[in-house]
């Protein structure tokens, strides 16, 4: 097995450097520019944080970088070779509204798969990280998924700011309602990265999303898998880095898969 | 074995469970059975049906042969528990919840030898057994032994001639130990935590840096000895200032501990004592807790600070807390202390450790062989 210690350490230092910027500017009034929808916004802090993360990584590694706020180096296909995938703030709307649910998310991909992941929520001082062959942790504690009857677990769904398949948008809300009404509940936290981190640490039983951007979920997918979750994801649009995913404890995964296929026949 | 023997079920056949408990609950009056999760060890114990434990006595060992009543894998002991007169736990504080289920609904005394009073409280609450009591095996045991001992018994284990203090609510169990009231037990715990655990683990972390395998080897290194003795003297001053222990007792206890760490018969392994640095670096524990107490007592923790630094840089890849190495390598000292250790950046200890970071790191590099 390859040793990913150096990539893990690099991702940790970059994520914390980025997170420190977010913490320093928490509460600032920020100019916002809409991207693809009202909920898809970018601030100067997103760009500044991304710059800092990219600077940290480039100082020590040559792999291409794909970042939310414009690709730093063009890489058309994340399913091949190695690269870094960065989201400087997953949960920007939460961040600008002082809701403590936003995080820096950094993944390192090798041969098209996430092998290192770091998700750092600087407001709550929660650092989730892991790597193939090393394990998965929150701050200084090893984490794992929490078992139990799938109906008694809590779930989360992520919704793209823009619906890439508008005819299917209502199906997403129907799925949300179905999960919410038949389990402990379904949340829309505003951060897909944190949803997966919460699955990895036993807070959530499962989560799912459609047409989610790769930088929102790649780190989380690795962390959840290393923590024992079952994951299924499909790249639906390689050019736009869009991914459908289902993740959960083995029992929750079955429940989610069944519901997803019922609502998206 | 006669019908008058009491049945004791011991969770954990490690250093304390196998090495020391048989000296407290002697096989001539107790039948000792074990629950052990390590399959290899369990199989070996099951096959042998007995083992020897060796107690240091001056310049030689006393030996005790222990016939094993039963040896169970976790979960297999449920029926046996109904007939047990008492339970002893020695599984490590992090594993205490794993045995809580098995003890749910039981009423027999449960003697919790976990080096952490909170573990006994947790076990009492989760199991619902109000007869769970805290105990302090004030002893160094080694789960490794010299080749000479291993030649006598591959399961052989070495222990010191220690003392076991047990909350007197479990007095009915009997055995060769001191049953003392809870208040007295708290005093003994304070002494054990800060005059044994603190310098003991500092000796281990520094010993790791000098390449020692055992604590007594570490203590032979002048640089290590200076820091361990220095940390001990700091804790003496702290306890004199903040505890109800009398000065003579503190001095006697401290000198006794330094002598114990240097005992060449013990073969106390560095990697056992240094195991799980994050647990030892927890806020109320033997390192960070000791340094916080020192600062609150007006004692500047110079030597304890060096020990804390050595724990931060303990990079044993086989340790359950091996992630500490990635964190301390990746993060700035300021971020490491804040995010990982949970120290507020305005706190006195954060500032103290940050200020001495470079100096202590240089000191550690001088220890490398």
Beta-sheet strand percentage of chain A?
25-35%
- Give the proportion of residues in helices of chain A: 25-40%
Q: Widest sheet of chain A: strand order?
A: 3-4-5-6-7-8-9
N-C termini distance of chain A: 39 Å
CATH superfamily of the largest domain in chain A: Fructose-1,6-Bisphosphatase, subunit A, domain 1
Annotated CATH architecture of the largest domain in chain A: 2-Layer Sandwich
Q: How are the strands of the biggest sheet of chain B laid out side by side?
A: 8-9-3-4-2-1-5-6-7-10-11
Q: Report helical residue fraction of chain B.
A: 40-55%
Q: How many β strands of chain B by DSSP?
A: 11
Please give the largest β-sheet of chain B: 11 strands, mixed
Total DSSP helices of chain B: 18
- Write down the CATH topology of the largest domain in chain A: Fructose-1,6-Bisphosphatase, Chain A, domain 1
* Tally of individual helices of chain A: 7
Computed Rg of chain A: 17 Å
Give the helix/strand class of chain A.
alpha+beta
Radius of gyration of chain B: 21 Å
Give the overall pLDDT of chain B as a whole number.
93
Tell me briefly what this model is.
The complex is a heterodimer of chains A (265) and B (369). With 265 residues, chain A is of the alpha+beta class.
Furnish the topology, listing elements before pairings.
The complex is a heterodimer of chains A (265) and B (369).
Chain A: H1 5-24, E1 32-37, E2 40-43, H2 44-58, E3 65-67, E4 83-90, H3 92-96, E5 103-110, E6 113-121, E7 126-131, E8 135-138, E9 141-142, E10 154-159, H4 169-182, E11 185-187, H5 192-200, E12 206-213, H6 214-226, E13 230-237, E14 242-248, H7 250-263
Parallel strand pairs in A: 3-4, 10-11, 10-12
Antiparallel strand pairs in A: 1-2, 4-5, 5-6, 6-7, 7-8, 8-9, 12-14, 13-14
Helix pairs in contact in A: 1-2, 4-7, 5-6
Chain B: E1 6-11, H1 15-24, E2 30-35, H2 39-48, E3 50-57, E4 60-72, H3 78-81, E5 86-89, H4 96-103, E6 110-112, H5 117-127, E7 132-138, E8 141-142, H6 147-152, E9 157-159, E10 163-167, E11 178-180, H7 182-209, H8 215-219, H9 222-242, H10 247-261, H11 270-273, H12 277-280, H13 288-296, H14 302-312, H15 323-330, H16 333-340, H17 348-355, H18 357-367
Parallel strand pairs in B: 1-2, 1-5, 2-4, 3-9, 5-6, 6-7, 10-11
Antiparallel strand pairs in B: 3-4, 7-10, 8-9
């Amino acid at each position: 097995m390859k040793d990913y210690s150096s990539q893990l350490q690099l991702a940790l230092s970059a994520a914390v450097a980025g997170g420190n910027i977010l913490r320093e500017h928490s509460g600032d009034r920020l100019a916002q520019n809409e991207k693809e929808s009202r909920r898809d916004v970018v601030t100067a802090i997103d760009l500044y944080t991304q710059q800092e993360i990219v600077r940290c990584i480039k100082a020590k590694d040559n792999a291409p970088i794909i970042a939310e706020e414009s690709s730093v180096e063009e890489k058309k296909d994340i399913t091949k070779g190695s690269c870094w995938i960065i989201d400087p703030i997953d949960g920007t709307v939460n961040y600008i509204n002082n809701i403590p649910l936003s995080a820096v998310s950094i993944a390192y991909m090798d041969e098209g798969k996430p092998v290192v992941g770091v998700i750092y929520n600087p407001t709550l001082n929660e650092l989730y990280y892991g790597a193939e062959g090393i394990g998965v942790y929150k701050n200084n504690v090893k984490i794992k998924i929490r078992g139990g009857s799938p109906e008694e677990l809590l779930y989360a769904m992520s919704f793209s700011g823009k619906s890439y398949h508008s005819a299917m948008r209502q199906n997403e809300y129907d799925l949300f309602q179905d999960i919410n009404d038949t389990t402990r509940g379904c949340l829309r936290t505003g951060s897909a990265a944190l949803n997966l981190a919460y699955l990895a640490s036993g807070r959530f039983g499962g989560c799912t999303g459609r047409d989610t951007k790769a930088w929102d979920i790649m780190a989380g997918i690795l962390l959840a898998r290393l923590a024992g979750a079952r994951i299924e994801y499909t790249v639906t649009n390689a050019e736009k880095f869009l991914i459908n995913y289902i993740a959960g404890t083995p029992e929750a995964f079955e429940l989610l898969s069944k519901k997803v296929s019922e609502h998206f026949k | 074995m006669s019908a008058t023997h009491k049945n004791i079920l011991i969770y954990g056949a490690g250093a304390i469970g196998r090495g020391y408990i048989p000296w407290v609950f002697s096989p001539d009056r107790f039948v000792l059975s074990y629950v052990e999760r390590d399959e290899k060890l369990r199989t070996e114990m099951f096959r042998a049906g007995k083992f020897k434990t060796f107690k240091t006595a001056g310049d030689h060992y006393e030996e005790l042969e222990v016939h094993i009543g039963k040896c169970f894998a976790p979960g297999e002991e449920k029926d046996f528990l109904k007939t047990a007169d008492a339970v002893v736990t020695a599984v490590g504080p992090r594993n205490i919840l794993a045995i809580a289920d098995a003890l749910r609904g039981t009423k027999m005394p449960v003697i919790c030898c976990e080096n952490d009073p909170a573990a006994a409280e947790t076990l009492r609450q989760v199991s619902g057994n109000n007869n769970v009591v805290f105990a302090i095996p004030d002893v160094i045991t080694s789960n490794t032994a010299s080749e000479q001992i291993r030649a006598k018994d591959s399961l052989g284990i070495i222990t010191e001639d220690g003392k076991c203090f047990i909350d007197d609510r479990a007095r009915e169990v009997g055995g060769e130990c001191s049953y003392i009231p809870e208040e007295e037990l708290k005093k003994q715990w304070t002494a054990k935590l800060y005059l044994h655990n603190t310098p003991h683990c500092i000796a281990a972390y520094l010993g790791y840096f000098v390449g020692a395998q055992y604590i007594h080897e570490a203590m032979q290194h002048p640089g290590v000895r200076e820091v361990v003795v220095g940390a001990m003297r700091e804790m003496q001053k702290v306890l004199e200032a903040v505890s109800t222990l009398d000065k003579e007792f503190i001095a006697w206890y401290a000198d006794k501990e330094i002598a114990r760490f240097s005992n060449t018969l013990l073969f106390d392994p560095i990697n056992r004592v240094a195991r799980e640095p994050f647990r030892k670096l927890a806020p109320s524990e033997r390192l960070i807790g000791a340094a916080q107490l020192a600062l609150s007592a007006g004692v500047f923790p110079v030597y304890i600070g060096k020990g804390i630094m050595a724990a931060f840089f303990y990079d044993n890849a086989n340790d359950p807390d091996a992630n500490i190495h990635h964190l301390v390598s990746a993060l700035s000292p300021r971020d490491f202390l804040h995010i990982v250790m949970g120290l507020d950046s305005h706190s006195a200890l954060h500032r103290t450790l940050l200020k001495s970071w470079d100096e202590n790191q240089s000191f550690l590099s001088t220890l490398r062989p």
